[in-house]
Amino acid sequence: MLRSFASKRSLQSLLHHHYRRCRQNPQFPIINPRPFSSSPGPPSSDAELRKYIGYTLLLLGSAAATYYSFPFSEDARDKKAQLFRYAPLPDDLHTVSNGSGTHEVRTRAFLQPESVEELEGIVKEANVRKHKIRPVGSGLSPNGIGLTRAGMVNLALMDKVLSVDKENKRVTVQAGIRVQQLVDEIKEFGITLQNFASIREQQIGGIVQVGAHGTGARLPPIDEQVISMKVVTPAKGTIEISKEKDPELFYLARCGLGGLGVVAEVTLQCVERQELVEHTFLSNMKDIKKNHKKFLSENKHVKYLYIPYTDAVVVVTCNPMSKEKGPPKNKPKYTAEEALQHVRDLYLESLTKYRDSGSPSEPEIVELSFTELRDKLLAMDPLNKEHVIKVNKAEAEYWRKSEGYRVGWSDEILGFDCGGHQWVSETCFPAGTLSKPSMKDLEYIEELMQLIEKESVPAPAPIEQRWTACSKSQMSPAYSSADDDIFSWVGIIMYLPTMDARQRRQITEEFFHYRHMTQSQLWDQYSAFDHWAKIEVPKDIEDLAGLQARLKKKFPVDAYNQARKELDPNRILSNNMLEKLFPSSEAV
């Protein structure tokens, strides 16, 4: 299935394109206008004067005609400038953007095969023609790692469960199946996935290839659940790899960023389906330090949500429900309505301050969830530190009144409402072992909080901290050869609660200042590296060179590039991001 897309081009780029084609193909005439020339003659002061008066009148007339022909609205100065459109965009041109609305491309080539055979044909033809077909999943990666305007292949129509081995708790699926769909289809066999990320809409191929993770110091990232894969490669066709069959390539390709082949089928190691008891409570850094080792070792799943400019730390633990004790008998102290009341009060108060009497009526406040209320609050003044602090304090109060227990199946409990459009940066770094945590994870947070306050960053909540065991996938940020190593993952965030282009641009600039601050002050000190779905390519050449050097210290970049050369010599599965992160030695 082919869908069309094409990028807007300026007039200048069109002329440049025309000139280049002419140089390459003699059938295209080269337009090379020469300057006018005239034979010298006697000077005439009257003629010169009339000439310049004529030029002046022509200029003034053109300016007036332009002004009255293209009137600007009063808010035009706040609107985002658009490239000159040389012609209406064709009907088959579409825009593909990521879930956060922070990255987008236009392309005509968006292929969706329905079978492995069809996928093989697409990859083979693209390789012969040297046409890009970058693998893209659900498009949920905050950095748009799967996007390219040159062309994409998406396996959304390859979404079947192929086989279930109930005894060994294994399932083989097509890589385009979404996490929630997979979980729903295998629950009748009494099995489920070992862990989950915050959301359930990812395709299995995508969530594995970027090394996504859940939380739990005994549980590795999701790529560790993969025990074999069927991969369609441009140079070697369809290959099957596993721990037993070509283990070297298997451990390299399992978290392969879509650069070594299109993952068509995956066999996953599952676990018994269990009900979990989630416990949410409010703590502080002093108590966290006292209990941190116990929290990591005694809970199957645990995460901390820090709220900048407050001492509040939200602790969320999840553990299998005891068959003997049953669900907890504790009743919540506050109702859901009471927990939201303080946030609603701040919203109404802020409406009075930031909106005039002529503002359009707001939707019924009772219909808004907490994250919707937070988005609306932040949209009023997203970069005003004092306003953000008020919102953060209201969030701390919301969590204080939301303390309690919740019981549900793992796929229902282990999720998190991340909010709306946002910029996010997440890093992964070593945190010792489960038996002997280094406490570097808490030191990182303390330094981060100090930086935020020192630099007066309008940092919203939460700063999320999670843990995983190590991965044996060589390209995973949590890779380690030591079985007992644990890793901490810390995410910072800035929401984009408005569609106003000027305001989104300002938030974006502030976020990248925030991100750069954490990178320059903390990352090298703690050996922290980006989550692959959240890494951003620097525009500055020196910063890019520094990033490339850092990646080479952590990851087997040479081995990865060699595998790309062997499996995808024409780089049809690559995009601009991969080429900049992992330049070949020839390119360097």
Automatic annotation (TrEMBL):
PROSITE patterns reported in the protein's UniProt record: FAD_PCMH (PS51387)
Cofactor list: FAD
Signal peptide: none
Pathway where this protein functions: Cofactor biosynthesis; L-ascorbate biosynthesis
UniProt-listed InterPro entries: ALO_C, FAD-bd_PCMH, FAD-bd_PCMH-like_sf, FAD-bd_PCMH_sub1, FAD-bd_PCMH_sub2, FAD_lactone_oxidase-like, GL_DH, Oxid_FAD_bind_N
Catalytic activity, EC: 1.3.2.3
A Pfam match: FAD_binding_4
Keyword Oxidoreductase appears in the UniProt entry: yes
GO cellular component: membrane
Keyword tRNA processing included in the entry's annotation: no
Residue span(s) of domain FAD-binding PCMH-type: 102-273
GO biological process, one term: L-ascorbic acid biosynthetic process
GO molecular function: D-arabinono-1,4-lactone oxidase activity; FAD binding; galactonolactone dehydrogenase activity
Keywords from the named record: Oxidoreductase
PANTHER family: D-ARABINONO-1,4-LACTONE OXIDASE, L-GULONOLACTONE OXIDASE
Protein name per Swiss-Prot or TrEMBL: L-galactono-1,4-lactone dehydrogenase
Species the sequence originates in: Solanum lycopersicum
